């Protein structure tokens, strides 16, 4: 009998080792499934949170734009009943820069155009009629403000920029029938004016071209 036990011991030991190896493999598989599930849940949670953040940010942006369009621009001046006749002569405008009135038959290109020299006002008024915002400045404006405003114009179709040395303030923004003096390129009214008046409700001819006109 003792001899039989000795013969069976190696087989029993092998079975025990095999069972232990299988137990460890099952344990590893369980841990792997738990880790995979946990990681998947974390990824899904991150995606949901990220999606929620993006939706919230988009909603905040939309609400800010609605607020900008519906709120009056502080310090803005408004002119009503502006004539829209095409003339091929100099026009004596009652405001400087002009925000409307009779103007040249050809518009100034206003497809994000930054002009470094003075432009014909009669052509620029035609651009305003098409829904453009016109940024003007004098030599008293800070170079940093001129640069930053130029970058905004270069990124905005239906806008243009040029110097107007004899205007009353260093920085002015104009649209058809609308004008405001701003203190700097970071003045909150700059963004509001662009949001509200680039192809805004004041535009007499919305959608009209801002290319194919006069270029400096």
From TrEMBL:
Lineage per the UniProt record: Bacteria, Bacillati, Actinomycetota, Actinomycetes, Kitasatosporales
Residue ranges of coiled coil: none
Transmembrane segments: 34-55
Region (Disordered): 1-30
Keyword Transmembrane helix (UniProt): yes
Residue ranges with Polar residues bias: 1-10
Descriptive protein name: DUF3105 domain-containing protein
One Pfam family, short name: DUF3105
Biased segments, Basic and acidic residues type: 16-28
Keyword Membrane: yes
Keywords on record: Membrane, Transmembrane, Transmembrane helix
């Amino acid at each position: 009998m003792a001899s039989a036990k000795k013969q069976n011991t190696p087989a029993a030991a092998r079975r025990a080792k095999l069972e232990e190896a299988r137990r460890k493999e099952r344990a590893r598989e369980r841990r792997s499934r738990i880790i995979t599930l946990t990681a998947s849940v974390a990824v899904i949670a991150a995606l949901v949170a990220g999606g929620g953040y993006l939706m919230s940010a988009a909603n905040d942006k939309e609400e800010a734009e609605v607020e900008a369009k519906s709120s009056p621009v502080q310090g803005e001046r408004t002119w009503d009943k502006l004539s829209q006749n095409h003339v091929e002569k100099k026009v004596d405008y009652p405001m400087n820069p002009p925000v409307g009135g009779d103007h040249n038959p050809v518009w100034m290109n206003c497809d994000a155009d930054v002009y470094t020299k003075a432009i014909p006002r009669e052509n620029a008024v035609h651009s305003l009629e098409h829904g453009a915002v016109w940024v003007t400045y004098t030599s008293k404006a800070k170079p940093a403000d001129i640069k930053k405003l130029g970058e905004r114009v270069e990124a905005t179709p239906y806008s243009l920029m040029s110097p107007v040395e004899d205007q009353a303030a260093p920085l002015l923004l104009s649209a058809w029938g609308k004008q405001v003096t701003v203190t700097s390129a970071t003045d909150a009214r700059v963004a509001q004016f662009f949001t509200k008046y680039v192809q805004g409700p004041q535009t007499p001819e919305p959608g009209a071209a801002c290319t194919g006109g006069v270029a400096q």
